[in-house]
Design goal:
L,D-transpeptidase catalytic domain-like; alpha+beta; rod-shaped; about 350 residues
């Protein structure tokens, strides 16, 4: 074989390789062009699996998605919010909420989700029919002030302060009054339910008010601890009664205010205590020449042994006028026998309640 033959063979081999490379390159270009063209053809369609507020818009064009969002997401937002409490409905109307929605923004976000990833990734997803599985939050705008006002109105209707257990006294008895639990709106939880209802498409459902009970500070069981000592006075019986832990422990005979000088009635408390008190004589006509004077302990001082102030100059004190006990004879004070007032003095503190009937 001559030299020309070898050179021809090498030339043919080179031409074949070149042709093959051109074919491969051309095929690659054609494939790339096809992939690009396919991707471009799909750019107006939302990827399967994309939803807005739970409403499926996968496979739709932008225009179709916009119509579906308007009909199935936005339109159903135009509904009242209704919260019920104890069988009664309380409404927040759409007009108050002034609800609007950004439909274009939701469609744009759906397109962005669809176009995420590289060209090959997108085309592979298109070809395989893979879902993106993304739920877009509805872009809803409403009056926050209307919601705040609605919450305030609900609290006004629902909130009820607890009532402490207490004592209802009379001249001779102490009657416990049970406490009552209160009710309080769970503001955080209730507001979240309301916002969810505003932003969620649907025909509108009634929301049960989220509440919690509040306990009174003083329960019936705690009354004896709160009122370890209690004093009552029955003027008609001329009797002072001493209660401990809400139980009657002693009754004392007394004298009360005479005609024109009434003993103050109602609920009061022991305001001050003195042993062998000085009598600061009030500037009243009945005091005569003693008016305005201070009388030290002794025979001329009618306040014997002990003093327990009650109200506006009136109080409980001992007396040596034992014959006045059991009658209306004082100038407004409560008189007691000296041994009795000493005994009572040692059993009451400043602040002890005293009910006078």
């Amino acid at each position: 074989m001559g030299p020309g033959t070898g050179m021809g063979t090498k030339l043919k081999a080179h031409q074949k390789a070149l042709i093959a490379a051109v074919v491969v390159l051309t095929g690659a270009l054609l494939l790339a062009t096809a992939v690009w063209a396919y991707d471009s053809a799909q750019k107006d369609k939302i990827a399967p699996g994309v939803t807005v507020g739970g409403v499926d818009i996968g496979g739709l064009s932008e225009a179709e998605a916009r119509d579906v969002i308007q009909d199935r997401v936005v339109a159903p937002l135009d509904k009242p919010v209704v919260v019920t409490f104890e069988g009664r409905p309380y409404r927040l109307n759409p007009q108050q909420l002034d609800t609007t929605a950004d439909v274009d923004g939701m469609v744009d976000e759906a397109v962005e989700v669809t176009r995420e990833g590289g060209l090959i990734e997108r085309v592979s997803r298109y070809v395989q029919g893979s879902e993106v599985d993304t739920d877009i939050e509805p872009r809803v705008h409403y009056s926050k002030e209307a919601v705040a006002n609605y919450m305030s109105d609900l609290k006004d209707v629902i909130d009820r302060d607890p009532v402490d257990a207490s004592i209802t006294p009379s001249g001779d008895t102490l009657t416990p009054t049970r406490g009552e639990t209160g009710i309080e709106l769970r503001e955080g939880r209730m507001k979240q339910l309301i916002v969810d209802e505003i932003e969620s498409p649907g025909a509108g459902r009634r929301l049960a008010a989220e509440v919690k009970t509040t306990k009174p500070e003083i329960t019936t069981k705690e009354l004896a601890e709160v009122y370890p000592v209690y004093v009552t006075v029955s003027q008609s019986e001329y009797t002072l009664r001493l209660f401990k832990n809400l139980k009657l422990v002693k009754s004392y005979p007394i004298a009360v205010g005479g005609s024109g000088y009434p003993t103050p009635t109602g609920l009061h408390s022991i305001q001050d205590k003195q042993v062998d008190p000085t009598w600061n004589v009030p500037t009243s006509s009945w005091a005569g020449d003693l008016a305005g004077q201070s009388i030290p302990p002794g025979p001329s001082n009618p306040l014997k042994s002990r003093w327990m102030g009650i109200y506006n100059g009136a109080g409980i004190h001992g007396t040596d006028d034992t014959g006045s006990i059991g009658s209306a004879a004082s100038h407004g004070c409560i008189r007691m026998l000296v041994p009795d007032v000493i005994e009572l003095f040692d059993q009451v503190e400043v602040g002890t309640p005293i009910y006078i009937q």
